[in-house]
Amino acid sequence: MTKNIRLLSIHYFCSAFKFYFAFQPIYFAQVTGSYTSATAIFSVATITSALIDIPAGVLSDRMGRKFTLVLASALSTAGVAFYAFAASGIGLFLGAVFCGLSQCLFNGNNDALLYESLKSTGQEGQFHHYQGRAVSMVSLALGLASLCASFLTGHGLRLLFILGVVPQALSIIIGLFFEEPRVHTDAPKKNLRHLKEACIKIRHNSRLLWLIIAQAFSYGAEDAKYQFQAAFFNTLWPTWAIGVYMMFNQAICFLSFWFSGRVVDRFRGTVLLAAQQAYILVSQTIGLIMSNVATPLLFMSDNILFGPAMVARDHLLQKEFTDEQRATMGSVVSFAASIVFALVSLGIGVIADRYGPAVGVGFGLAMSAVSLPIYVRLFKKNF
Predict the structure, then answer these.
(1) Can you give the pLDDT at residue 246?
(2) I need a surface site. Which of 33, 57, 100, 119 has the fewest CB within 10 A?
């Protein structure tokens, strides 16, 4: 099972090595001609993910973590290929569907794979340490890919998507070397009734229910804003500098995830989540008011707390999940966040077309701030 832990880090690195990541809204807007259409592509990916998310969790619980991971990697490769060779919005929307299917299969499955691999060796109590190190590979990959992309933008943004197909294909090969966790293979197979059972258990676990609501707004709205904010930064910095920005941005994320285990050991998870959301609200509000060359740097500073907050959130959720429905419950969580993402993303696009990218980003920030009072409540009260 220790092999799974090493492979998961490598898989995270390959699947996240996306030259195009920082330039997606700019490229989508170039192809479609509007911010609304560009954000609609993100929404289609997320809506697709949301609609299939819960069945995907059931698939993972029934067919296995390895099979689900390999399938997700294959779908991601197809999605990026559609993006790369799209001549119109139709190709981009098809790519969004495949990427959405891929994402919903990863949701719940990867954390369940890691947790169960650790549990097989009696190390589940160290989940937050191992997860922080594994997820830090995403930031490392995005940072290196963005640095490379800054030297390639002169050849057109489409080239970034074409090159991005290669690491996605490599992630398929890596997935074939995983072992199915014994905790999962030894569990009894159940039918779709365990989805209903998972929802009932969530409804009766008020702490878990509030965590799901809070993360739906904090992650869903924040991710929608994050996916779009490069278009806003492009009004303040030249296009090539967006890649350099993303490189430094992900370098901070890498460090925050790498040391997140130690931070989570020292502070309560709800404290970290509340502190992160409060800092985001204050720093990004100041950045939007300024709207100058320093604004992206203020946004970048939020990533200092990003890793510990995300690991704390996932650790809190995993402790509330049951073994029998671990991936299914994870999919319920991501389903809620996907719905918020899709609605906020569309709102950002419509507002940005009418009032400008800065106002669109401000709308996304306001929506993510809804989670702050919930995290404060979770910190103050024991459910």
Answers:
(1) 83
(2) 33
Q: By the 8 A CB rule, do 78 and 20 touch?
A: no
Place domain 2-380 in its CATH homologous superfamily.
MFS general substrate transporter like domains (1.20.1250.20)
**Hey, what are 261's tokens?**
């285990």
Nearest to 23 by CA among 198, 194, 156: 156
**Sequence-distant (≥ 6) Cβ neighbours of residue 271 within 8 angstroms:** 379
DSSP state for residue 172 in the 8-state scheme: H
Domain boundaries, the chain: 2-380
Q: Given this model, what pLDDT does residue 189 score?
A: 46
Token pair 């072992």 is found at 179
| Residues 6+ positions from 227 with CB-CB distance below 8 Å | 24, 25, 39, 42, 345
Q: The whole model's pTM is what? A: 0.70
Backbone angles phi, psi at 152, to 5 degrees: -110, -10
The residue among 62, 299, 254, 47 whose CA lies nearest residue 147 is 254
pLDDT digit string (tens) for 200-225? 777 777 777 888 888 888 888 888 89
Short-list 68, 1, 44, 19, CA closest to 327: 68
pLDDT, position 162 = 95
Q: What is the pLDDT of residue 46?
A: 83
Task: State the Cα–Cα distance between residues 138 and 260, nearest whole angstrom.
Answer: 14
Backbone angles phi, psi at 146, to 5 degrees: -70, -35
The encoded tokens of residue 10 equal 């490598």
Give the residue ranges of the chain where pLDDT is below 70: 1, 53-54, 57, 108, 124, 128, 182-195, 320, 322-328, 331, 380-383
Which token pair is 168? 């996605």
**188 secondary structure, DSSP code:** P
